[in-house]
Structures are given as C-alpha cells and as structure tokens.
Write a structure and sequence with these properties.
The structure is a homodimer.
Chain A: E1 4-8, H1 19-27, E2 30-35, H2 43-48, E3 57-62, H3 69-88, E4 93-97, H4 107-116, E5 121-124, H5 129-136, E6 148-152, H6 158-166, E7 169-173, H7 179-188, E8 195-199, E9 207-209, E10 224-229
Parallel strand pairs in A: 1-4, 1-5, 2-3, 2-4, 6-7
Antiparallel strand pairs in A: 7-10, 8-9, 8-10
Chain lengths: ~230, ~230
C-alpha cells in the first residue's frame, strides 16, 4: 500500500545509515529531498544517493530557512499537498531527514498534516548528530543516573543558561546562533576543558573545536553541535 | 592495528543497525557481549548474531546489575584487563552496546580504563531507544526551539519532577524504577493523553502503553522508555 516513510539517514557518514533506511529508500517510488534553496546541495541526499536506484524518482521540496511561522505553515501545507497527490495516485513517498526524525526535523511538521488526509505514515529512526559527536570523541553524553539537557540555542540563551545551571550534561543544538554567549558562559563557569564543538560531524568536512578561543571564529558552519559536561568529558 | 571498537547496535530491530556497525563486527577478531548473568540472553547479541561470522569469536563478559560502585569498579577493572590482554596479543575487540554508546552504556566506563593502557578506541554511534520509541509512534521529541530533558528515574524522582516543571518534552529512562511516581505525576499534571511508554521497542516483544491505568501493572519490563510531551504527542 502506498504511504509516506520518513527516513532518518543519520548524521552524515553514508555508513551511519541503518539497514532499515536503505531498504526503505529502495521501496519508495519517490524520494523527497528537502532543500533550503533550489539548487543547494543536501547532505541527506549525499548520504542516500548511493542507495537510490533507477526506479526511484527524486523530488526536491523547498523548505526555506525562516522563523516566520505563517510562512512556514503555508510552506508545510503546500508541500503536504504535493506529497498527498503522489500518495493518492498510488506512489510510496520517502522523505529524507538528516540525523533522526524525532529531533527538530522538518518532516515531523508534515506528519499531522499528512495524517489529516488519512495517509499512512511510517517513521524510521536514525543516528542523531549528538550521538555521532560523542562517538567521534569516545565520550559519553549521559552516564550513571544523571539527566541530560538537549537545548537549541535561541534568543538570549535563557534556556541554555538555566540548563547549564541544572545539568552536568548539556547538548547545545544550533550553537552558531550565539557563539559569543557560549564563549562567555564557558569562560565564566571555567568549563574550558569540558566542552567540544563539532561541525559537519562524520562528513568529509568534520571539524573539531576544543579551544574556547576558536569560538570567536565567525566561520563555524550552521550544522554544528556542542557537548558541555560539567564533570569533564 | 588492533584496537577496541565500541559498537552501538541500535534499539532491538536487527534492521536498525548501521552499515558501519555491521562492517565493524566483521572486522573484529573478538566480539564482547556484555551480560548481566552468565547464561542470560542478550538483545545486543540477538541483533548482531546474523552479522557475526566464523572468523569472529564471541566472548561473554559479566556486568552484574548492582548500584554498589565499589563492586562495579572492580568489575570494570577486571573486564578491562581481559580485553587489554586480547588487544595486546594483536586482536581487534568489538564491544556490543544496545542502543547508542553515548547514553548510559556500560562500554563507556571501560573507555578511560582502556585508554590508560594506551589502547586505541573507536566508537560507532547507534540509534537510541528514545528515537526508536518516537519513530514507532510517528511523534517528535524535540520541536521548534524547545529543549528536551532526558532523565533516568531514580530515588524519589526529584530530578524528573524538576524536569517536568521546566520542560515541555521529557524522555524518562528506566521508568520501571518508580511507576507509581510516574502514575501520580501524570494524573496530577493532567498529562493522561500526553505520554507513551514503550517496552522492548522495535523487538518482537514491542509493547505500547498509553492508558495511565496500565502503569499500575508491575510486569512492565526493565527495558522501557517513556516520552512525556506537555504540549501533546
């Protein structure tokens, strides 16, 4: 039966995709690749392309990078409609997601919209960026019975500051939103030896920052993740 | 060169293992399977066994379920020594980890010990139980710019209660530690429609609980994960 399959393809290394994701890609008639600009490359596509066969059609869907909720919702509605037509015509549609669909993915905004059309959904989990960051440094994120805060950096960082006060283990998503704040918090809390920031983890552009002074470099890519562990990495 | 490879094999479904983990298993001379009692079955082994070939030797290592830190450290030291001898004799040793090594894995306690012997370490991330739980229900854990708390339930649940106060999105690890507390918090906060508990996610024994009254059933397995989302699943 035709349906939509949300496919987590992992953090970047094409080997960090699951067998289930590969098999799902092969089952799809259409593979949707979300892009922030038409013509822009997609890491999710780069991971999946070796598993996409001649029987799969690739469909780029535009998801602009904006915080305007009204514009986003209009965009999600339009992309949902396009997918709905394909499914109703009998196609199985895969939707690629970098990392894992349950953490901050665009795909999850389409799910309730597709379900409202009565479309069957399957979701395939993937390896998250933060698990890949920790593995690449052989460090743990959660240990013993300690909680972990996973915090997207936004605004003036109030949520992050609160998490740093409370939790020994914090994952900072979107750290480039305010690198100056991170620099200041790390210095103030004397956590210079207790953090790692990795950009484009597990891809060919994998970059590691452990020197707090390097956070002043404005060229750190958007696709970055930081782990801060108060008790040491 | 001989080394130790920590291998995240994912949450339970043998298809939710990564290509990198499969390739790593094939490269190992010895595959260590941690077990809590000799003779007890291991879900990590059940996932990996189809990828373990004739050239791999399986070594069960005992890791008793105890909270006695002295006993645990003695055990970690002993198991480290056994692995160290194998590596020094030229063997590449894989260490299987259910889920992802960076979240509450036994393997990570061995890493600094092995590194102290100068042993090279590689860690391969895996799909976590909580990502698998969310995917199986087609729900998101983190969305928009909201933080997520990942909280192992322990003691009287102070950390969990605090996380429920602060965070819209909470993953409860080890929920069977105190199901009565979870029942009471869910009722008090009127979150009856906002949680899911899944046991042995993605295995043949995958069980879903969404009715709060079922939390009173004492037979819920240890390998369970709960997601609570204050704004709805």
């Amino acid at each position: 039966m035709s349906k939509v399959i949300g496919i987590g393809v992992g953090p970047g290394d094409p080997e960090l995709i699951t067998v289930k994701a590969i098999n799902a890609i092969k089952r799809c008639d259409i593979v949707v690749v979300p892009v922030s600009k038409i013509g822009r490359s997609s890491i999710a596509f780069d991971i999946a392309k070796q598993y996409i066969g001649e029987s799969n059609t690739v469909l780029n869907q535009l998801f602009p990078m904006t915080h305007d909720k009204k514009e986003l919702e209009k965009n999600w509605d339009e992309n949902t409609l396009e997918i709905e037509k394909l499914v109703k015509s009998g196609k199985t549609v895969g939707f690629l997601t970098l990392g894992d669909p349950s953490f901050y993915s665009t795909y999850m905004y389409l799910v309730p919209r597709l379900q409202a059309f009565g479309i069957e959904i399957e979701t395939i989990p993937g390896v998250t960026s933060f698990s890949a960051v920790a593995a690449s440094e052989n460090i743990k994120i959660g240990e013993w019975e300690e909680p972990v805060g996973i915090v997207p950096l936004k605004g003036e960082g109030e949520t992050l500051i609160d998490a740093l006060d409370k939790f020994n283990n914090v994952v900072v998503m979107k750290p480039t939103h305010n690198l100056e704040l991170l620099y200041n918090e790390i210095k103030k809390r004397e956590l210079e030896d207790n953090f790692v920031l990795i950009s484009k983890c597990s891809t060919d552009s994998h970059t590691v920052i452990k020197d707090v002074e390097e956070l002043k470099d404005a060229k750190i890519p958007y696709l970055s993740t930081m782990i801060i562990k108060r008790t040491g990495l």
